[in-house]
């Protein structure tokens, strides 16, 4: 029946991941069944929706279900659905390839994980689905026919680097996956998956909530009649899942394990949920929601497409996955289900974008998630730390995008600080530690902690014992521009505007002493700086560069440029350390002769730029000035 059989190779990343599964020491091998049932259930959801939208599609959707067949003699297990099915191209793309959306990230993560040898974590990050079958099977056959098409496709693989694919003339619509099971091995947690009781147990454990019937043929023995005769054995088809929506059950009656399995199904994830949020809103826009905060970020968290977020149901019927309208983008790590009561089953993405009801629901979900994070922060510090390490960078986007909740988001955020080498601080804790004479919350932005800690901007803050927040995520550059204060304390960059770090009374006279130097430097460096003034920020460096209070920092300008926007970078201010011998020396030299001093001025400026991690406009010129100068001293 089958025509040409073609052999193909898995895409490189897919092959690596597959290898990982085949040789996995992952103990929970049973979970392959959850993955297959989950895929079948998704396929049925998709078909129901497609039939609803496309009236020309000629399919019978009156009896959508999942069948599980076992064959103890052949040692096979088959999971069959009459759902949407796949075309040949889809099989190649969906089963033979991995994560179109984030291949670069995927490669990077695979490299890291291979080095660290941490399979468990890797499995968590990738949410390995179909490939998990190779934990329990030597060979997997998949036969599928897409709804509305006449030819079918057969796919086969032993989980090595290749698979075969062939066209079939005939097959039922939908997908059937047959596992040729590895030998039973209790030590390796490989059970007998041909035993109906085992399948029943696993379905109960992993997939009981699936809304479609999961059916299995069971043998029933009818006892012999009283007047003699043989007992008869009949085969009946039985539905083995209860099909109750988990979100419709009271929280007290659902076990953590059930929530965890449901999370893995909706999120296509393999990690454990960090927090379960169940809510029910009555009144005008009645809805129920079951949301999860994962414990591990997927590898493509920063890739905005290609993540299964929140699913929308209407009156228990699946409407769409990845419903962006239900959750703000900075909470895109939240997974789960929202079931709305008074919405049309016909609702489309276009309608959702305008829908008032959705906006109300989204507001209430946002509040609920923020309050769950608040509870983590106050009651479960370790879990809060996990949350922050995994999702903090994304969460901080809310400081920019969610003006209504900005204060809450700020309160729930943590920041690296000079106070501790490794533990981040909340702003509330920072304020608790502020010095008596300190009025502002100080922060520094830059590429890395190391760079910031050594930057001249921090010197006097360190010397005076003021704590400084060290903000090194790209998003930090941006949000600090739009968050002026927290609890009445202004946020102040150590590299911007004026800071008054205990200027003394003889300041004015000191300024006078340096007046000639300041004027001369201003003229000499006019191309680079708009002002030269004395600093209270410096203790050991001779000079540093400061951005105006409302000016754009070089880092921010770089970010804009990277995203294709050109922003004018104004000239900055050069601040001098009046106690540094180079500065006093320059002042004294200037009084006698200006010979060669212009080069010194340029070196001074260049050094200030380098010290903050900046890039010189003309490094070759700087190097030659420096070499000339050094030549005079050797
Ligand atoms: P995920 O479910 O997270 O996308 P899987 O590895 O489980 O990852 O499956 C990969 C893809 O293969 C699915 O997204 C789906 O498009 C397709 N697929 C798998 N099983 C089926 C099925 N039974 N019917 C239709 N499509 C399927
Ligand atoms: Mg899947």
Molecular structure report:
It is found in: Cytoplasm. Molecular chaperone. Has ATPase activity. It comes from Mycolicibacterium arenosum. There is one protein chain. This protein has 4 domains: 2-226 and 233-239, Histidine kinase-like ATPase, C-terminal domain (Heat Shock Protein 90); 246-384, Ribosomal Protein S5, domain 2; 414-448 and 458-493, Rossmann fold, CATH 3.40.50; 505-631, Heat shock protein 90, C-terminal domain (Four Helix Bundle (Hemerythrin (Met), subunit A), Up-down Bundle). The chain is α+β, with helices and mostly antiparallel strands. 38% of the residues lie in helices and 22% in strands. The longest helix is centred in the middle third of the chain and has 24 residues, at 356-379. The termini are far apart. It is elongated. The strands form 5 sheets. Strands 1-6-5-4-7-3-2-8-9 form a 9-stranded mixed beta sheet, covered by helices on one side. A 5-stranded mixed beta sheet has the order 10-11-14-12-13. The mean pLDDT is 89. Residues 35, 39-40, 43, 81, 83-86, 94-95, 127, 129-130, 175, 268 line the site of adenosine-5'-diphosphate (ADP).
């Amino acid at each position: 029946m089958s025509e040409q059989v073609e052999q193909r190779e898995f895409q490189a990343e897919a092959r690596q991941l597959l290898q990982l599964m085949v040789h996995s020491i992952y103990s929970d091998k049973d979970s392959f069944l959850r993955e297959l049932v989950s895929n079948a259930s998704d396929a049925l959801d998709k078909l129901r929706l497609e039939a609803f939208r496309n009236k020309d599609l000629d399919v019978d959707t009156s009896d959508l279900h999942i069948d599980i067949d076992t064959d103890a003699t052949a040692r096979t297990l088959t999971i069959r659905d009459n759902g949407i099915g796949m075309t040949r191209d889809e099989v190649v793309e969906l089963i033979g390839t991995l994560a179109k959306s984030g291949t670069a990230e995927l490669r990077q993560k695979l490299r890291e994980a291979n080095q660290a040898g941490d399979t468990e974590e890797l499995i968590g990050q990738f949410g390995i689905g179909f490939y998990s079958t190779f934990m329990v099977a030597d060979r997997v056959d998949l036969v599928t026919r897409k709804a509305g098409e006449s030819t079918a496709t057969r796919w086969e693989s032993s989980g090595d680097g290749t698979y075969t694919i062939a066209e079939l003339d005939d097959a039922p619509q939908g997908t059937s996956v047959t596992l040729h099971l590895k030998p039973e091995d209790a030590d390796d947690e490989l059970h007998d998956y041909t035993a109906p009781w085992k399948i029943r147990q696993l379905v109960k454990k992993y997939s009981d909530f699936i809304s479609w019937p999961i059916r299995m043929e069971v043998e029933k023995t009818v006892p012999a009649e009283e007047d003699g005769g043989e007992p008869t054995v009949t085969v009946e088809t039985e539905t083995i899942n209860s099909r109750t929506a988990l979100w419709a059950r009271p929280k007290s009656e659902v076990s953590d394990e059930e929530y965890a399995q449901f999370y893995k199904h909706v999120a296509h994830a393999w990690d454990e949920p960090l927090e379960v949020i169940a809510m029910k809103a009555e009144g005008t826009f009645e809805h129920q929601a079951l949301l999860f905060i994962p414990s591990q970020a997927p590898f493509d968290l920063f890739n905005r497409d290609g993540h299964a977020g929140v699913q929308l149901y209407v009156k228990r019927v699946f409407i769409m996955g990845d419903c962006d309208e239900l959750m703000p983008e900075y909470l895109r790590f939240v997974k789960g289900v929202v079931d709305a009561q008074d919405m049309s089953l016909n609702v489309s993405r276009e309608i959702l974008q305008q829908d008032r009801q959705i906006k109300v629901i989204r507001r209430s979900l946002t509040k609920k998630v923020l309050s769950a994070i608040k509870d983590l922060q106050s009651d479960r510090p370790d879990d809060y730390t996990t949350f922050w390490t995994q999702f903090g960078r994304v969460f901080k986007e809310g400081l920019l995008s969610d003006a209504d909740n900005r204060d809450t988001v700020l309160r729930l955020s943590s920041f690296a600080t000079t106070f501790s080498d490794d533990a981040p601080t909340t702003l509330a804790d920072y304020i608790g530690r502020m010095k008596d004479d300190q009025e502002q919350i100080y922060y520094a932005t830059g590429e890395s902690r190391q760079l910031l800690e050594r930057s001249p901007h921090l010197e006097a803050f360190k010397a005076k014992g003021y704590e400084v927040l060290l903000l090194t995520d790209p998003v930090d550059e941006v949000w600090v521009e739009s968050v002026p204060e927290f609890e009445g304390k202004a946020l102040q960059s150590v590299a911007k505007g004026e800071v008054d770090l205990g200027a003394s009374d003889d300041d004015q006279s000191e300024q006078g002493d340096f007046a000639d130097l300041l004027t001369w430097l201003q003229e000499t460096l006019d191309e680079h700086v708009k002002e030269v003034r004395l600093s209270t920020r410096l203790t050991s460096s001779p000079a540093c560069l400061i951005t105006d209070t409302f000016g754009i920092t070089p880092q921010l300008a770089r970010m804009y440029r990277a995203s294709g926007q050109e922003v004018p970078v104004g000239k900055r201010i050069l601040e001098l350390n009046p106690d540094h011998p180079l500065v006093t020396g320059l002042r004294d030299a200037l009084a006698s002769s200006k010979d060669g001093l212009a080069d010194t001025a340029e070196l001074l400026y260049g050094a200030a730029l380098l010290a903050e991690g900046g890039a010189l406009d003309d490094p070759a010129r700087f190097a030659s000035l420096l070499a000339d100068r050094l030549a005079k001293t050797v």
